[in-house]
Every structure is written in structure tokens, then in C-alpha cells.
User: Which sequence fits this backbone?
């Protein structure tokens, strides 16, 4: 039965029942998490906001349906209205708003704003894709631990305002707060080692309430909000949006959480991810089989984008789970193990076959090319959470990429920038070159294994560049003939207003 309160809130008098205190009021301002846009296509884009007057306490909106007004303009001051309307939301989706704007012109910039009562959201800028565009610009980001650094990289990204931002995961970290001023000896050591600059809100997150509050904490960061407001994003999660190194329906620590507990946690995490991202698809909640579709294809100028999801359908890690691994072990050669699941692999191959674009950009989470950390291949020196743990499927994909125009693989996850040539036999540079891989460093997460990566570079002749010492992001610019990668680095990730520069630039036309 519908309660009277819910009925009243759902009626046309909704806006007068929602307490608002004008734009200047901090206490109940609902747009504390900013605005975002995503999934850019030639004629549509998704606009996002979430009403959260008390962002760290579940959001703080009253129960019931709320109507949010919006306006779309062709200028940054919002003078002329191109489209306007209202969109409904409620507590069922954490008062998040996902609005698919349609009937847009290709390759155009648009500005948008949401309104609730007298309150106005910040103004966001977005851009539709276009097959006619001669060039396209992309930022690639991953791994933004809130405690170990500021999000300065996003300030630079917002100023650049690329056509699109790819985020390939570890948007949040699920761990408990590490106190900046700890009192136990162990915590003091950790605070020093991690060089903490700020604290997570509370213990390790497991419930929908926890995940919402964690996203809200991250999204209240002004630099992150600016990057969301400056460009449309295309996102696919990795592991820390749920739990470190999870795979399919298996947590990293099956001794600490039962399969049922983990699958309930997974539903909460997928739901909260959806509530905070400008996504087209909402999660399909079906008990332990609940899923959120993230893999998808996009076309941007000369590039066909293939966005993968390498967590939700992956086979469990083997040979000791992570890094360094118990290597070699027989399970590694099992041809049924995969990063993507069978259906997604088939989908990818079909998309690659269909593509008629000069560049094919595969956007995904972990390092694709092999990385050898020691001379002898049978030492415990490989990372089983990356594609090195799934070599049979990787070879199938490399073989496929051999038939495709200019494949470029983009990766994140390892908190370390890297540029590789992908060869038919990936460790053997004498075999034909198939394509390129560029991995972004982390936005703010530390890279304790940086010196091990640097020390091993000479063992990896397919690797052109590594840098695990700096935080930042990757700029990509593509035209018909060339992909340019610029590795942007933050001088000091713990200092406000730190300088951000290009550490290295690579053009694929110079490498062929
Ligand atoms: Fe990470
Ligand atoms: Ca990760």
C-alpha cells in the first residue's frame, strides 16, 4: 500500500514538499556530488546527477519520488534552451538521475544543468561523438586511492576537456580508513609508508549504504567533479569497486566471506557503481546471478572503441592468485579459462570483424602484454591477476588483432605507466608486430612495486617506456594515420596545485 507521505511526495506538489533553502545554503544543497555525462554517441548522451544533501549519510533525501528539472544549451552560460524537461528519481536508486538525451547533433558540444526547487546544479559540458571528426581526443584514468594522494590529475584533465574520458577501474577503494594520525605502531608505519593525505570514511565497505557513502566521499572532491563536468565518460569497473582481486563470483578471501555474503556484497557494489556513473544500463538484479552490463562499443572519429569488462565474467586467478605467482603451474594452460567469459569474447571478435575504422581501440583494465620480472621464466615473478594469468585467451585475441586495422590496447590497474609493442608472439620482438598497448599510471594510488618494474624493463624488449614513480593519466589523440600518447605526470600528488607536465610522448607512426 502506498503511504500518504509517499503519495504526496509523488504528486505534483512534489517541489514544494521538498525542503530547499536556496542556492547559498550548504546544509540542504542537493547537488553536492556535481554532474556528469557519459556514453557519448552521435545522437545521444547520458546526463547524470545524484541528489545528496547529506552525502556521507546515505544521501539524506526524504523517501519518495522527486522530479528534477533539467535544461540543455549550446553555450556555456546556458542562455539559449535547446531541450528541457523533468526526470523522476527516488530512494530506489539512491536519488540518482540518469537521463538519456536524444535527438542531438553529432560532434557538438552541449552544456546542461539540473534544478531542484531553487537549487541549481553546477553547469556541465558534454560532447556527442561523430564519425566525421578527423581527430578524437581521449583521457585514460584508473586507480584513485583517496587516502594516498590528491586528484590533481583531474584538474589538468578538466582543463584539457577531451572528447571523452575512459575510466578503467579502481574508481573507489573498498578498504577501511587508515588514520592520518594513528596511535598503534603498525598504523604509524603504514601512514608513513603510504604517505597518507586524507582518510576514508569508516571501516571496509560491504553494504549498499557503505558503498554509496564511499562514492559520495570520492565524488565530493572538486577536481574529480570538474573532470566529470568537463567531458563525457566511458567507464568499466575493475576490482576495488567491489573487493580486491575478485573474479566472477569468487572473492579474494573466500575464508573471510561466504559465497552468498560475497554475492550480496557484489549486488550492492554494482548498484552503487550504477548510481554514481553516467551509464546507459542499470544492473539486472537476479539474486546471485545479478549483473551490470559494462562492455560496449562506441565510435569516435577515426576510432572504433571496444570497451571490455574483465572482472565480472572472468575465471578465478590461478598459480597463487596475484603477484608474484607460483609459476609455472599447469592451470595456466587451461584453454577454458578467460578474462572476459565466452560470450564477451565472441562479441569482441564480432565487433572487430565489423569495424571499418582506421583505429581499433580496446579499452580494458589490466596490463595486456606480458611483463617478465626475472631472467628465468619459472621463478615466482609474474602477475596472475593481469593477462599474464590468462595467456591462452590473450594469444587468441592477439591472433585476432592481426587481422584488424591499427589495434591499440589501453590499460590501467598496475599504478604504473607503460607503452608496449604487441607482437604475434608477445615476448618475441622478431615476430610481426600486431599493435600497441598503452597503460596509464594511477591517478593517486601508490606503486610500491615501481622499482621492480623499472629494474626488469631490459628483460622486456617489447616495452618502450615504463614509469611507476609518478601519478597522472594518459592523453590519447588519434587521427587516420597516428595515435599519439602523452603521459601526463603530477609533480607531487600530495601537494595542492602541484605542477602537471608531459613526461613522455609516443606517436605510433614513429614505431612502425
Ligand atoms: Fe588500483
Ligand atoms: Ca585493480
Assistant:
Amino acid at each position: 500500500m502506498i503511504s500518504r507521505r509517499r503519495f504526496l511526495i509523488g504528486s505534483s506538489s512534489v517541489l514544494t514538499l521538498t525542503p530547499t533553502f536556496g542556492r547559498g545554503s550548504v546544509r540542504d544543497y542537493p547537488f553536492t556530488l556535481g554532474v556528469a555525462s557519459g556514453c557519448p554517441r552521435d545522437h545521444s548522451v547520458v546526463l547524470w546527477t545524484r541528489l545528496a544533501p547529506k552525502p556521507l549519510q546515505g544521501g539524506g533525501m526524504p523517501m519518495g519520488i522527486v522530479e528534477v528539472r533539467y535544461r540543455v544549451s549550446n553555450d556555456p552560460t546556458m542562455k539559449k534552451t535547446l531541450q528541457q524537461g523533468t526526470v523522476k528519481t527516488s530512494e530506489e536508486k539512491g536519488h540518482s538521475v540518469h537521463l538519456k538525451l536524444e535527438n542531438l547533433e553529432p560532434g557538438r558540444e552541449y552544456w546542461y544543468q539540473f534544478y531542484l526547487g531553487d537549487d541549481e546544479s553546477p553547469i556541465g559540458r558534454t560532447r556527442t561523438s561523430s564519425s566525421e571528426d578527423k581527430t578524437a581526443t581521449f583521457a585514460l584514468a584508473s586507480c584513485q586511492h583517496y587516502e594516498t594522494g590528491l586528484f590533481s590529475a583531474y584538474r589538468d584533465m578538466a582543463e584539457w576537456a577531451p572528447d571523452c574520458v575512459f575510466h578503467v577501474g579502481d574508481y573507489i577503494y573498498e578498504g577501511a580508513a587508515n588514520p592520518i594520525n594513528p596511535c598503534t605502531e603498525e598504523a604509524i608505519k603504514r601512514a608513513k609508508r603510504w604517505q597518507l593525505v586524507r582518510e576514508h570514511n569508516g571501516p571496509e565497505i560491504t553494504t549498499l549504504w557503505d558503498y554509496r557513502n564511499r562514492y559520495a566521499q570520492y565524488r565530493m572532491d572538486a577536481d574529480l567533479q570538474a573532470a566529470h563536468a568537463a567531458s563525457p565518460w566511458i567507464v568499466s569497473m575493475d576490482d576495488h569497486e567491489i573487493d580486491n582481486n575478485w573474479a566472477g563470483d569468487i572473492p579474494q578471501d573466500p575464508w573471510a566471506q561466504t559465497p552468498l555474503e560475497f554475492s550480496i556484497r557484489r549486488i550492492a557494489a554494482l548498484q552503487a557503481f550504477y548510481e554514481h556513473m553516467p551509464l546507459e544500463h542499470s544492473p539486472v538484479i537476479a539474486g546471485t546471478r545479478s549483473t551490470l552490463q559494462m562492455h560496449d562499443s562506441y565510435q569516435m572519429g577515426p576510432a572504433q572503441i571496444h570497451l571490455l569488462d574483465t572482472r565480472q565474467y572472468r575465471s578465478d586467478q590461478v598459480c597463487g592468485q596475484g603477484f608474484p605467482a607460483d609459476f609455472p603451474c599447469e592451470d595456466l594452460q587451461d584453454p577454458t579459462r578467460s578474462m572476459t567469459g565466452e560470450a564477451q569474447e565472441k562479441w569482441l571478435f564480432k565487433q572487430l570483424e565489423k569495424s571499418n575504422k582506421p583505429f581499433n581501440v580496446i579499452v580494458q583494465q589490466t596490463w595486456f602484454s606480458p611483463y617478465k620480472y626475472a631472467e628465468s621464466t619459472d621463478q615466482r615473478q609474474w602477475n596472475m591477476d593481469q593477462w599474464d594469468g590468462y595467456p591462452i585467451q590473450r594469444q587468441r585475441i592477439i591472433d585476432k588483432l592481426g587481422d584488424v586495422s591499427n589495434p591499440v590496447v589501453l590499460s590501467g590497474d598496475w599504478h604504473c605507466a607503460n607503452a608496449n609493442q604487441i607482437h604475434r608472439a608477445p615476448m618475441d620482438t622478431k615476430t610481426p608486430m600486431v599493435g600497441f598497448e598503452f597503460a596509464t599510471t594511477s591517478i593517486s594510488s601508490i606503486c610500491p612495486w615501481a622499482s621492480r618494474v623499472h629494474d626488469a624493463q631490459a628483460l622486456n624488449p617489447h616495452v618502450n617506456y615504463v614509469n611507476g614513480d609518478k601519478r597522472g593519466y594518459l592523453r590519447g589523440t588519434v587521427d587516420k594515420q597516428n595515435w599519439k600518447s602523452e603521459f601526463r605526470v603530477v609533480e607531487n600528488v600530495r601537494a595542492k596545485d602541484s605542477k602537471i607536465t608531459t613526461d613522455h610522448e609516443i606517436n605510433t607512426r614513429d614505431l612502425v
Observations:
- The chain is about 20% helix and 25% strand.
- Residues 472 and 489 are 4 Å apart (CA to CA).
- The first helix runs from residue 4 to 10.
